[in-house]
């Protein structure tokens, strides 16, 4: 039998025998009232609330998790420097290209950290031309149904140990920062950022949530630059609208550090930008699509800059096309095209993807969501990108060169 749901804030009537006198209030204010028959049309209280909630479990507070897994001073410096570098690249003060690179989703923290170790070394190699941020995505928005990521279901088995998921996520973020690598996350659930946002240097709002007021409000208060994707149908204006909305002040409900419901007032986030990810209708990384997006941004009074996601609709979901997208961008940037300030790659240790199965039977380092580039191809893509940019402008100035 299902457990009794207890989600609503409505005060439940205590169970009582038929005809007994109800007690209203509590403690010394309790008052005996004569029994009244309910109006014939009033449904019994237990049919009003939580009729579709199966279970409610306690959630650790953000403060508790941060107390257990605090940021070190070194990690704090990596986060802050990462945020500053990303902002500098977006504004053009730093002439390098941002590259957000990593698995579609983290399902095995050990494999993600193995990947991070390789990426940290590669990031050093290309840092004169490319600012590398590792994609460390724990929340997956699904087109219909599917595994929703490590925070939601760290056991990959429908056991939904969310407290464990938050702990694993924060621990991995700290481990990646310890390597000196800044991280990027998608923010999907409006509660989750309180647990991990202090570790993040670049954030994303995905194609399926860019029109959501909840996510625009959230972006307006986040402390890092946020890339907002065009819709899965290819609508870019909704992303431009989202950037504009997120730049404004908002007042909305959320949670505080102690996990209590709170009213949040935000300043607005002027570091949001559009991410062109293509769509089911085709790619939108070509020069004409970029130009059209920059014109939309200018018309809205917003900075003219975009990041291009080489995966998703821009690769037709074929990971082998991601290098083609990046090579085309590199050629155009080397030729002087303006406006593209970054790229995103979905990449893991092993190329392709695999169906989600018993964790013990999964291939190590291969995605369980979208297909990814493997490590050797990823290294080639980033090295070739850096070499193309270097050849075009050996004097390119970047904050990372100092
Ligand atoms: O990047 C990840 C996926 O494209 C996104 O989560 C949607 O996945 P789905 O279409 O397999 O649900
Ligand atoms: C879900 C993602 O992308 P999109 O929102 O573009 O589908 C993603 O980058 O993981």
TrEMBL record:
<feature type="domain" description="DAHP synthetase I/KDSA">
    <location>
        <begin position="88"/>
        <end position="381"/>
    </location>
</feature>
<dbReference type="InterPro" id="IPR013785">
    <property type="entry name" value="Aldolase_TIM"/>
</dbReference>
<comment type="pathway">
    <text>Metabolic intermediate biosynthesis; chorismate biosynthesis; chorismate from D-erythrose 4-phosphate and phosphoenolpyruvate: step 1/7.</text>
</comment>
<dbReference type="InterPro" id="IPR006218">
    <property type="entry name" value="DAHP1/KDSA"/>
</dbReference>
<comment type="similarity">
    <text>Belongs to the class-I DAHP synthase family.</text>
</comment>
<keyword id="KW-0057">Aromatic amino acid biosynthesis</keyword>
<dbReference type="Pfam" id="PF00793">
    <property type="entry name" value="DAHP_synth_1"/>
</dbReference>
<keyword id="KW-0808">Transferase</keyword>
<dbReference type="InterPro" id="IPR006219">
    <property type="entry name" value="DAHP_synth_1"/>
</dbReference>
<protein>
    <recommendedName>
        <fullName>Phospho-2-dehydro-3-deoxyheptonate aldolase</fullName>
        <ecNumber>2.5.1.54</ecNumber>
    </recommendedName>
</protein>
<comment type="function">
    <text>Stereospecific condensation of phosphoenolpyruvate (PEP) and D-erythrose-4-phosphate (E4P) giving rise to 3-deoxy-D-arabino-heptulosonate-7-phosphate (DAHP).</text>
</comment>
<keyword id="KW-0028">Amino-acid biosynthesis</keyword>
């Amino acid at each position: 039998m299902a457990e009794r749901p207890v989600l609503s804030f409505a005060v439940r009537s205590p169970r009582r025998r038929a005809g007994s006198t109800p007690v209203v209030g509590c403690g010394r204010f309790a008052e005996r009232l004569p029994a009244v028959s309910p109006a014939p049309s009033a449904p019994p209280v237990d049919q009003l609330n939580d009729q579709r909630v199966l279970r409610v479990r306690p959630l650790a507070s953000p403060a508790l998790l941060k107390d257990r897994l605090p940021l070190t001073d070194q990690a704090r410096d990596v986060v802050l420097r990462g945020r500053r570098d990303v902002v500098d690249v977006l504004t053009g003060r730093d002439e390098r290209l941002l590259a957000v690179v990593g698995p579609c989703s983290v399902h095995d923290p050990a494999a993600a950290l193995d990947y991070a170790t390789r990426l940290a070394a590669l990031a050093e190699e290309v840092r004169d031309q490319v600012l590398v941020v590792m994609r460390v995505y724990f929340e997956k928005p699904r087109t219909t149904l599917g595994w929703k990521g490590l925070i939601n279901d760290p056991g990959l088995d429908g056991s939904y140990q969310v407290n464990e998921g938050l702990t694993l996520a924060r621990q991995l973020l700290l481990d990646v920062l310890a390597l000196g690598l800044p991280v990027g996350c998608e923010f999907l659930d409006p509660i989750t950022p309180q647990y991990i946002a202090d570790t993040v240097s670049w954030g994303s709002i995905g194609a399926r949530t860019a029109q959501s007021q909840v996510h625009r409000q959230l972006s307006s208060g986040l402390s890092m630059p946020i890339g907002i994707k065009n819709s899965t149908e290819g609508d870019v204006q909704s992303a431009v609208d989202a950037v504009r909305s997120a730049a404004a002040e908002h007042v909305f409900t959320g949670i505080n550090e102690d996990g209590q419901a709170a009213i949040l007032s935000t300043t607005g986030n002027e570091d949001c930008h559009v991410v062109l990810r293509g769509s089911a209708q085709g790619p939108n990384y070509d020069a004409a699509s970029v130009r059209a997006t920059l014109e939309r941004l200018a018309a809205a009074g917003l900075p003219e800059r975009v990041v291009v996601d080489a995966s998703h609709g821009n690769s037709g979901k074929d990971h082998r096309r991601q290098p083609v997208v990046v090579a085309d961008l590199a050629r155009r940037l080397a030729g002087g095209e303006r406006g593209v300030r970054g790229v995103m790659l979905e990449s893991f240790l092993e190329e392709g993807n695999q169906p989600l199965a018993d964790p013990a039977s999964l291939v190590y380092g291969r995605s369980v969501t979208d297909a990814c580039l493997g490590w050797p191809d990823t290294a080639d893509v980033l090295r070739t990108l850096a070499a193309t940019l270097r050849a075009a402008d050996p004097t390119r100035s970047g904050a990372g060169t100092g």
